[in-house]
Every structure is written in C-alpha cells, then in structure tokens.
Specification:
The chain is of the alpha+beta class. It contains 10 helices and 22 strands. It has a 6-stranded mixed β-sheet with strand order 13-15-19-11-5-22. The chain has a 5-stranded antiparallel β-sheet with strand order 6-7-8-21-12, with no helix packed on it. The chain starts with 10 loop residues before the first helix and ends with a strand.
Length: 502
C-alpha cells in the first residue's frame, strides 16, 4: 500500500469547504447518508419490514459476535483461530455493506431483493464462520452453544443507534466516571436542531456513508459537564508525560494487532500511530520490544494508535483506492494533529502499581453506533471549552479554537493478565468514586489528548468501519505498554510521589 501523506488544513482547504457548503445548501450533509450500511448490534433487536423498506431501513444490523458471553473466555490454544474468524466476520459485513450500496436502485424497486442478494448470503457466510469458531474452541475446551443463533441479520434505520429511536441523535451518552470520569456528556439535546448550524457547511460525505449534519453540535451551546473526583489522602496525585510526537513520519495502516493479530486490514479503517514504529498486524511482543520508537525517551517503546481524522473536502488521499481507505468509505485528507499529549495519571483513592509489560488496552468501541454506547469512551471538545465534553457529537469550534479528542483509558488491572479474550475484562474503569472493584489494582491511567487545527464548522470525521457511518461515538484508542522496567518504575514513583515528571 502506498504511504499515505499527512496534510494540515490550509486556507485552500477552508475555501473548498466553504464553497461546497454554498453549493450543497441545507440538504448536502443529510443527502450523503443515503447508502445502505451493515453493522453489528444487539442480537435481540428485530426490525419491522415494510414495503417501502429502502426509505425506512438502511442498515444491516447483526449481533456482535465478539462481545457475546460464549466468547468471554476463549482458551489460549484457540485464540488465534477465533481472532482470525472474528476478523473474517467483519470483512463479511463490509462486503454486505458494499453490495447494499451497489444494488441500492434494485433494492429501492424491490425490497425483497435485499433478502435474496444481501441478507441471506450474509447469513450463510456467518453460519459457516460461527461453526468454525465453535469447532476451534471445542477442540480444546467445551464447545460453545448457541453461536448459530447469531448468524441472521436484519434491516433497521441507519439514522439511529440502539436505544436512540431517532430522538435528535441521542442523548449524548451517560458517563458517570465509569467510562473515563467525564460525567454528563451532552450533545444529543441540541444536536438535532443545532447539528451544528451545520446544515450546508460540509462538502463532505463523498463516500456516501456519513457524517451528516446531526452528527455536529456548536460547542458554545453545550453546558459545562465535567466533574472531577476529589483525590483522597491516600491517593496518587502525580503525573508522567511522554512525548512521542504527532506522527510526523506518517505511519498508518488499517491493521489492528490487538483485535485482529495476523490479519491485514483487520480494522477496515486507517490508524494514526505514535511511539513504536514496528506496529502492524504481524507485530509480536519481541518485534515491538526491538522496534524503533518516536518517543523522546527511548525507554518508551509503547504503541499508541487511534483512527485518523480526515478533512471532508473532496480531496483524495494516497489511500483513495486501497483497503481501509477509499475502498471502505474512508475518504478525504488525513489531518496531522497539531498536538498529541500522552499523560499517565494517578488514582484519587490509592497508590498505583506498575503496568505489566505488553499490557494491551482498548478504550472506546469502534462499533458503538450499532452496539450501543456501553463501551463508548472517547470525548470531543474544543480548546478553550474543555469543561464541555461530547460523546456522540463532533464539536463545531469557534474561530481560533481547535478540535480536541480525549481518551481516558481503563485504570484498574486484574493483576494477572496482559490481555483477555475480548480484550476488555483484564482491565476496568474505576467506579464513580475513583475506586477499583473486584480485587483489581490501580495502575497509571493513560490520558490521551489529540488536537487538530481544522476549519470551523462541520467538515471532518474519524475513519470507521463502513457500517458505522463515521459517527463520533465510534472513536476509540489502543495502547500496548512497552516501557522498559526502569522507566515504568519512574512512572510509578512520579505518580505516587505527587510529582510532575517527563
């Protein structure tokens, strides 16, 4: 794959966006999201079928196999085969999405064509893949039951995510401290109307799968909503900040070595990487330990990555015709962050213990639009307004203010495992009072702050799985700890000692 270039927003870009806004008018943003899409969601939901199905139903909704209880404890001996098949399920959904888009005219004329051309073939593929997952686990442990029930997919409206019911783009999510400690996320109340004053300010959505006007909100209309847990006497107030640059070298790929190890294009969208330069689908603990790092302190070879943010200005990137890029609806100029801050903070209730080397943490949910917001955790804001955090909306920032993405990672560890079958249960968020539960230990909390200088108004979006429609709630971050022992000891000492270190 050709290396993707990194481009900052320019006056020319701003002019393109403004011109597109004038040409498209109020319907421009909404009209881009008319293609059908495919996704994974709640296995118990079903969609009503109507004769006018194309107008009312535009998303394929499938149960999210990876989050099911049957796969909560996959044996190590079966893990690699299960991971490969889960990645294949994602590819099957991507292909179904593309078929929907290609056949939209036929489906519009005959809604039953969706069953024959898309849903039934998808069910057959999923059935076979789920059987392979069950067989691979059954070879080394008790065979999981009921996986075949996850094969059927249904149609549902593409403008709503689970539980929203189309009410002005949702209620912005509830974040009571369990998911990163930023309570009362707002953005849904005003999103339908304010959408960011954005009707007609975006020339984007060229891929036909989002974003749309209701995905944006004017940050000045959002009420302050950030609450901080008070640090107790036994807490840890210090911080350690590592400087790993802003991906000046332009390292990208559409792999995800945590979720889909050994699978090229396992993410179906492009990731920005800072830190370890050896990260791709085939990276191992040994290759990461031997890799080069962009971090100033060479003792930090950790890998930090997240979906790229693109300017939706009609300009092609180098990945316009490749997997993970334009082939999967991720279009527009990739934006280099103006600033990336990586800080490890303490616990308000206790001292922290060292992270194990090669600890893997995912925060947020790349499929939150179809899965619901239970694991959604990224926050959006603007410089000068960071006491107002959004979960399910992109911010429209005033002139002179920049867009901010924030990820607060899980800060409690089970004390044993560097990873888990679902990549989540070995770590957890502290409760709303800042305490770790269930015998978990407090570890330094990674807090990522990524800032972008993009034009004011709608006109940007994160990369996503095609079926996730570039929704802001799907934003997520990934981290693999490759600190050497000496530097990790310094991190713990700084945090527990109440010092500010670099």
């Amino acid at each position: 794959m050709p290396r993707t270039s990194r481009k900052r927003s320019t006056l020319a870009n701003r002019a393109i966006v403004a011109t597109a806004a004038l040409l498209l008018g109020g319907g421009g943003l909404v009209a881009v999201n008319v293609y059908a899409s495919a996704g994974e969601g709640d296995a118990n939901r079903s969609a009503p079928r109507t004769q006018n199905v194309w107008q009312s139903m535009s998303t394929i909704d499938c149960p999210d196999v990876a989050t099911q209880d049957q796969l909560a404890n996959v044996p190590d001996a079966a893990r690699s085969e299960v991971d490969r098949n889960l990645a294949l399920i994602d590819s099957q959904i991507t292909e179904a999405y593309q078929r929907f888009a290609d056949e939209k005219a036929q489906i519009e004329r005959d809604p039953r064509f969706a069953d024959n051309a898309v849903l039934n073939p998808l069910k057959d593929k999923r059935t076979a893949t789920l059987e392979r997952i069950a067989i691979s686990i059954g070879r080394v442990a008790e065979r999981p039951q009921g996986l075949e029930g996850l094969a059927p997919c249904t149609l549902r409206a593409g403008g709503t995510s689970p539980g929203q019911g189309g009410q002005n783009g949702g209620q912005g999510g509830q974040d009571d401290g369990q998911n990163g400690g930023q309570p009362g996320q707002n953005g849904g109340q005003d999103g339908g109307q304010d959408g960011g004053q954005g009707d007609g300010q975006n020339g984007g959505g060229q891929a036909g799968n989002g974003p749309e006007a209701s995905d944006f909100v004017d940050i000045t209309t959002v009420r302050p909503n950030v609450q901080k847990v008070r640090t107790a006497r036994g807490g840890s107030k210090g911080t350690f900040t590592t400087d790993c640059g802003v991906n000046e070298a332009g390292k990208f790929n559409s792999d995800n070595v945590i979720v889909a190890p050994g699978v090229s294009n396992g993410a179906h969208h492009m990731h920005d990487y800072v830190g370890n330069q050896a990260n791709d689908a085939f990276a191992t603990d040994d290759s990461l330990a031997a890799g080069e790092t962009s971090c100033r302190n060479q003792g930090d070879k950790s890998t930090y990555y997240w979906p790229v943010l693109r300017l939706q200005n009609g300009q092609d990137e180098d990945d316009a015709d490749v997997d993970g890029g334009g082939k999967e609806g991720n279009v527009g100029e990739i934006q280099t962050p103006s600033q990336v801050t990586l800080t490890f903070a303490g616990s308000p209730k206790s001292k922290v213990t060292a992270m194990p080397r090669f600890l893997r943490i995912i925060t947020g949910d790349a499929k939150a639009f179809t899965n619901g917001d239970a694991n959604a955790n990224a926050s959006w804001s603007c410089t000068g307004f960071e006491n107002r955090q959004l979960k399910d909306k992109y911010p429209i920032c005033p002139e002179g203010s920049q867009v901010v993405r924030t990820f607060k990672f899980q800060s409690c560890w089970d004390g044993r495992n560097a990873d888990s079958a679902n990549h989540r249960t070995h770590v957890a968020f502290a409760d709303r009072n800042g305490r770790c539960q269930n015998g978990f230990k407090a570890i330094p909390q990674l807090q990522q702050r990524v800032v972008y200088d993009v034009p004011p108004g709608p006109g940007f979006a994160v990369d996503s799985f095609p079926e996730q429609l570039h929704k802001p709630i799907t934003d997520h971050g990934d981290f693999i700890n490759v600190f050497d022992d000496k530097l990790m000891k310094k991190v713990v000492s700084c945090v527990n000692g109440g010092r500010t270190c670099r």
